[in-house]
Amino acid sequence: MPTMISAVLLAALAPAATDRTAASVEVEAAPAAPVAAPVAAPAAPADDGPVDPWSSATTPSPAPAAVPPPAAAATGVVPYGSPGPARARERAKPPDRPIRWRFDLLGAFGTTRIGDVAWRAFDFDRGALHVSGTARADFRLGDGRVFLGGGLTYRRFAGFGSAYGTLQTDAWVREPLAFLRASVVVVEGVDVVVQAGGGPSVVDLGFVSGEFADQREVVGMIDALGGVALYLPKRWLPRRDASRMALGLELGAGYTWRGELDVRPTPSTDSEPIPTTGAPLGDLAIRGVAWRLGLFLRFQ
Amino acid sequence: MTIVSPRLLRAGPGLISLSLASQLSGCGAEPNPYATALELLPPVTTREGLVWVDRGHDEAIFVSPTAEALEVRRVALGDDKTRVAWSRATRDGGSVLALTVPESAKEEDTDEQLHRFAADGAGEPVVYDVRAPFTAIALSPDHRRAVLYFGEDGGAEPLHNANQIALVDLAGQGVQNVTLNGFGGALRAVEFPGQIVEGAPAPIVIAGVQHDIAAFLAPSEVVLLDMDDPALDQVAIPLGSDIGFAPRTTLLRPGNQLFAEPALFVLPTQGPEVGILTLLPEGGGAGFTAQISLIPVGQSASDFVFHDSAAVPYLITVDAAADALVFTDVRTQGGFAVALESQAERVFLRDASDGGRQAVTWAPGGSAIATLDLGGIEDSLGRKPRQLKIETGVDSLVRLDNDRALIGSGSRLYVVDFPAEQVTPLSSQAPYDPRDSALVDGRLLLGTFGQPWVSTVDLTTLSPESMLLDDPIVSFHYLPGPQRIVVTHADDVGHLTVVEPADPSRSTSRVHWGFLLQGALDKE
């Protein structure tokens, strides 16, 4: 583990790799014409090697070549179907944008394996499947490989079960989560991430037997995970270094702690009921090891 | 295991697919501690509370109401190799008895055991090895003993000794397993004929020796057993199968100056005769024997009591065919009949307001109850029965105390005041069962199955009041310890209402739900 941490630190503190040969100008040839006009096209990049996506230097575009004016330019009219003068268009590549910040929208699902056996009264297994949506942003730390940031997540999951063959149960957990996050770019397209956060966890429990009963509790929640994010490098994208969006996958695992619930449901009653009390059924701790797999859209 | 619950199906296809993925991850492989269903026997009532036996989890759940809450105690009862056959409270409500039997015939090393718990479940239970899966129990009115036996159904045993019994000492830890020495008849009922006063020992003195006699009734015979005798002296009396005398119940008259020897009266299931077994000392020992005689008591004897007038020891029988009371002098076996002019099948005695005794007769389906003062019964002029009309007929009768009785009759209840000879009808929208009642401090409290009412009748003013519950009643219980009425409602997780009998109202009542699962989530 220390070796791994050292490697991550070295990678994080090392200067970012630079490959300025990646600068290019894209030339788009005009459709073939009966009489091709000679066009002085710039040379294509000699090397399609790695691109430094966060390079702050921009490569100047070559000077435009002299192009003879089209024949129709005198009249300004080009008859439809008649062979016109050759024409070539050149579009300048947008300037490269170094990655200084990133903003992700992440949708994820995963499982929390809840350690408390009491959860089995609310679901048929201990693995609670959760789905979440996240908005997060981070910023490069200096010129290194480390990004620091944070975000907000809304996560929910549910359990459906029965206890003792007579009590139908359900549990809904809804929780907003604020977190801090650190990413280390190992190579472009591969980040190692860790994050930690917390927030309130709103737990709704439902019980159905001969009567209906329910309970809502808000408990504290702390969440920590680490994982890896895989995303499309800029050089794989159509606009290469100028790309402002990317897609990625993130796989993470960690532990989610939630405060213990004193389960004491309140039976539903008609209006003006006799004072009614639900029995204390015991404690429930919805906490355990969790993993998640997400797909994110990145703006950078 | 259910992969997808119906509720999850309603939650949406997205969640279904996600749940399936979760299930396929293999997380559900370990056993679910909440999968075993509750298997509850009906609650038994003790002095302190109600006790449910959960066969599914081998537990007895003791539920006692306190001022504002319920106290719930779970006690292990049996194990995986055993099953609770039945449970029962003792007559004084101070203990709970439960018999465990092997879960299946394959459990050959598991013995039948009777467990006795304190009313609140505290402490360790007393366990008796009773050696047979008995299906019935008789509890002595003096609260000292229980007799376990095979009832008429005999249980599920492929072969059992119909005359095997277990005598259980409820005050200690002793148990005696005995086979009755009869004449081949299978045991049908067990009675303690000498114990007339609840909670009081009533030894039968035969020639100066005390005996605690139990009567075991079989077709055409009676076996008497002295439970105080370490040798368990038995006396078997054939009653003549050729004349079709099948004993139904017994009644023991202690000896006194009018008739010195104790006499056991035996009422047949049908017929015009009553058996009299005169208990005599056995020659040369401390045991006893019985001398039998059959005496005619009219056309058909359906019930009996005994009564001593100033000079005559009477056996009083109800002649249901003639609607009459038949008085028989136990000494001479001579007597007379008094026509009641109303249907009669049952009889009981009460203390009359003039200090004498009074016989009260009634019959299910009859339209009147009759009373007959016994003060001057030897004088034919004093034999004047009186009728109290029950307009809509008698379905059932419950004695509330010496002076009052409650009669159920369809959707009406009648409160009968014997000293005042007054019958007060109480009408309701639905039938009341007078057996679901309690008399607390001059108030009659009623709560009948299926109704959402607990009703109160002040027996001084006969003013009824009803309190509406939030749910219909399944069972009605009076707990003398905490002095609370408890009515249960239909819900297997436990649902009941605790009612203050002194002031039954919605504001003083409390509803408790889910108590049978109390602490269930804390199981490891």
Summed up:
Chain A is mainly β and 300 residues long. Chain A has one helix at residues 2-13; strands spanning 27-28, 89-90, 101-114, 127-140, 146-163, 167-187, 190-208, 212-231, 245-258, 261-263, 266-267, 276-278, 282-284, 288-299. Helix content of chain A is 4%, strand content 49%.
Word description of this protein:
The complex is a heterodimer of chains A (300) and B (524). Chain A is mainly beta and 300 residues long. Chain A has a domain at 101-299: Porin (Beta Barrel), CATH 2.40.160.20. In chain A, 4% of the residues lie in helices and 49% in strands. Chain A has 1 helix and 14 strands; from the N terminus they run H-E-E-E-E-E-E-E-E-E-E-E-E-E-E. Chain A has one helix at 2-13, and strands at 27-28, 89-90, 101-114, 127-140, 146-163, 167-187, 190-208, 212-231, 245-258, 261-263, 266-267, 276-278, 282-284, 288-299. The longest helix of chain A has 12 residues, at 2-13. Chain A is elongated, with a radius of gyration of 30 Å. Chain B has a domain at 436-524: Thrombin, subunit H (Beta Barrel). The two termini of chain B are 21 Å apart. Chain B has a 4-stranded antiparallel beta sheet, with no helix packed on it. Chain B is globular. Chain B is mainly β and 524 residues long. Chains A and B meet through strand 3, strand 4, strand 5, strand 6 and strand 12 of A and helix 1, helix 2 and strand 42 of B.
Give the key terms.
heterodimer; A: mainly beta; Porin; eight-stranded antiparallel β-barrel; 14 strands; 4% helix; disordered N terminus; B: 524 residues; mainly beta; four-stranded antiparallel beta sheet; 2 helices
